[in-house]
Write the structure tokens for this entry.
Amino acid sequence: MKTKCKNALRQFSFPLVTLMLIAISCSPKDKSNAPRPKARMAKPAQTSEPRPVSAAVEGSTVDTREWHFDQTAMGPIHVIATVPNDASDTRKMPVLIALHGQGESRKTPVMGARGWPFDYGMVQAMNRLAHPPLTTDDFGDMVTPERLQTLNRSLAERPYRGIIVVSPYLPDEFRSKRLLQDAEAYGAFITDQLLPKVFAETPAFTDPAHIGIDGVSLGGRASISIGLSHPKVFGAVGGTQAAFGVGQAPMIVGWLKEARRTSPALRFRIISSVKDKFKDFTEALSSQLDQANLSHQMDIVQGNHSYEFNRGPGVYEMLLYYDRTLRNEPFLGTDLKN
């Protein structure tokens, strides 16, 4: 839904790329496809400045490793991998590629790669998940009592076991006209350079069923584009507050339908929040996936589109979801839609 092989890892399907490019050119027009000068997004994905999060967390249950790739098709890319301390050759872990938002894309590769581990508080969230129960403070007060109770009940029944989260710098690209070309180039970096490094230097599962990709805002736009065009590489694909327009939902329905022909067990999740500017897209996509009988997980949680969301519902929902789904377990004890 893994190191013998650069070629085995790179599973980009050219017939699928062709179909996706046709879908982009034919999909209904929306604001995200409207002409814009110099093809730059108007604003960074996050709306407030990040507060510092210390890399040194007392009693931390995880370790971080950093790699730098000078030569990629999209320029230099810095990577921070967050690895559970109890991971070993006899206790391998699933892998999640987590892509940050546009605010970090406008920083240097070294600083941008800090998005999920530190600026969004992932190291801290991993430690909290290992020591439940969670509280409203963990979510920045952006959680309903019912959702918090559900998450804590799940943790009581099945403790958080941990995943290896790999957070590469994501360039400020992936505009509509070059969406699939950028997905191919960045996807080649992931499959040909990054995943072989992860498999060689961390105690990671290598089977695609245990490999996922997700991201927030611009990162969600990239994760969905890359993940659905590489269905043999990823067992689970998701987008958190993914930066698409409503008119692009039919295009993504076509991508998932084609990806499922190659990998029927591929899991797909989209999550938004009540005050997210991409909530309408998320709900439209879920509705159209229902109509196409394509199974998926869709959640609308509390919060806005900000660093505070990333550090609260964004990071906790992401970690707990992939802790379950990359072990082929249902999320929160429930099946996917359809």
Q: What stands out?
A: The mean pLDDT is 87. The chain has twelve helices and eight strands. The first helix runs from residue 6 to 9. Strands lie at 62-69, 77-84, 95-99, 164-168, 211-215, 236-240, 267-273, 297-301.
